[in-house]
Amino acid sequence: MRDIVKKHLNKINKKEEKILKNNKGIIDVKLEPLVDKVESFVPEGLKDTLNKAFYNAFKLIFEKGTKIIEKSYNKKRIQEKHNFHDFSFRKIKNRRTLKKIDRHAQRSNFINMSISTIEGAGLGFLGMGLPDIPLFTAVILKTIYEISLSYGYLYELDDERIYILNLINAALTTDETQKKYNFRVDAISHNIDNNLYMEYDMDKEIIRTSKILADSMLTSKFVQGIPIVGAVGSIANYRIINKISKYASIKYKKRYLKR
Q1: Is 248 exposed, middle or buried (0-12, 13-18, 19+ CB in 10 A)?
Q2: Which residues contact 256 (CB under 8 A, 6 or more apart)?
Q3: CA distance 245 to 167
Q4: Where are the alpha helices (DSSP H) in 126-201?
């Protein structure tokens, strides 16, 4: 059992290192000059508007929206599947039984990326960049919630919400800032999984994550506000969900194997 866990932890660590070393994909590199040019046309105040929109979306979902998100998937079934595959992995310690734990999370990621792309393209076609912020935030959290359940973790407690917010921060930042958040993600998971006290300010955490999301999507939301052309903004939705889901899958799997 220890050999299997150690082997897969080494693989996960390599994937994590790859993300930390090279957070920008080929598409990001090629689009960067265009993004810089478009940003010069972004009106002052849009970033503040985005900040507030994401902040309000997180507050609303954490206070009232989690139960609504849960209507989009079968929480009990995901938990039952995890428990069954977890039992199988502990009993038959091989790659096949561990892969079954991963499978549902991967399937959910694909569905959620498709949803975010479709709704982004639809509203972008109509020239509506900001109205989809609550929906897009819900898809982000839905993606993380399903990954969380797939590895045997719940997400309702404030400690786990702090963990989730920092997952988003680490997934969407780069260089030293990303390394700082990655370290924070590990520290938070260590405290949670060892029942250690955590001191935090939920409001400040939401403000920080809202700012990072706003920075990540500033250009795409500006473009998405232009009818017809705005459909291109759906690519940003896909990229954001893809980054978050990849990073969250690595960190939750790491937590599971360490446990």
Answers
A1: buried
A2: 101, 151, 152, 153
A3: 10
A4: 133-150, 158-172, 175-193
Q: Which residues contact 129 (CB under 8 A, 6 or more apart)?
A: 123, 220, 221, 222, 223, 224, 225, 230, 233
Q: Which of 86, 109, 81 is nearest to 97 (CA)?
A: 86
Q: Which two tokens stand for residue 87?
A: 């039992």
Q: What is the DSSP letter of 239?
A: H
Q: Which of 100, 76, 97 lies closest to 149, judged by CA?
A: 76
- Would you tell me how many other CB atoms lie within 10 Å of the CB of residue 196? 11
CA terminus-to-terminus distance, the chain:
12
pLDDT digits (tens, 9 = 90+) for 9-42: 898 899 899 888 875 555 555 555 544 454 555 5
Q: Which of 176, 173, 170 is nearest to 189 (CA)?
A: 170
CA-derived radius of gyration, the chain: 18
pLDDT digit string (tens) for 187-224?
999 999 999 988 899 999 999 999 999 888 765 454 44
User: Does this model's pTM top 0.90?
Assistant: no
